[in-house]
């Protein structure tokens, strides 16, 4: 790929996990360490016997707030399981399904950063893999100004350190 492509990933399930026990809860039920604010991790929910139950992408948006992305076909299945684990463990967390409230576009390829830099100066600086930023994008079209607040995640399935073939996911 020499330029960039865009794909609509809106159907992916988007769950908000918040509360004073959110980090401890997510660390308890997943295999990888939950990241610091502004970072993303791909991890797995484990059963009590250590089997993989589901794969999640977890982004820490605030100290006690996490955006959890899981597959579209397992949205209610994973949400129900998380709710049961929180209730049975007595965790002080709230779980909210944000799937219908948030869109998700993925811009991938060597020129993805260049393209997104036209929307906001935030894309011009460093944007390490597995990082997340809240970015204000302003688009002007036919004298109409639209301000969209997006949370952007950067990660790559092949782990390369270059921007290409990085994927930027914009939650709209």
UniProtKB/TrEMBL annotation:
Please state what the protein is called: Dimethylglycine dehydrogenase, mitochondrial
Record GO cellular component, one term = mitochondrion
Q: Which residues form the GCVT N-terminal domain?
A: 2-142
Q: Which Pfam families match?
A: GCV_T (PF01571)
Which domain of life does the UniProt lineage start with?
A: Eukaryota
Looking up InterPro entries in the UniProt record yields: GcvT/YgfZ/DmdA, GCVT_N, TrmE/GcvT-like
């Amino acid at each position: 790929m020499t330029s960039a492509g865009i794909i609509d990933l809106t159907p992916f399930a988007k769950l908000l996990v918040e509360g004073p026990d959110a980090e401890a809860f997510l660390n308890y039920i997943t295999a990888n360490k939950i990241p610091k604010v502004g970072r993303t991790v791909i991890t797995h929910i484990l059963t009590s016997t250590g089997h993989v139950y589901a794969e999640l992408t977890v982004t820490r948006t605030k100290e006690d707030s996490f955006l959890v992305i899981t597959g579209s076909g397992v949205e209610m299945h994973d949400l129900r399981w998380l709710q049961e684990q929180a209730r049975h463990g007595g965790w002080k967390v709230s779980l909210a399904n944000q799937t219908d409230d948030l869109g998700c576009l993925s811009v991938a390829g060597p020129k993805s950063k260049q393209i997104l830099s036209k929307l906001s100066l935030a894309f011009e600086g460093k944007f390490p893999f597995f990082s997340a930023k809240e970015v204000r994008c302003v688009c002007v079209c036919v004298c109409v100004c639209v301000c969209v607040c997006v949370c952007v995640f950067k990660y790559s399935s092949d782990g390369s350190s270059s921007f290409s073939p990085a994927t930027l996911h914009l939650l709209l």
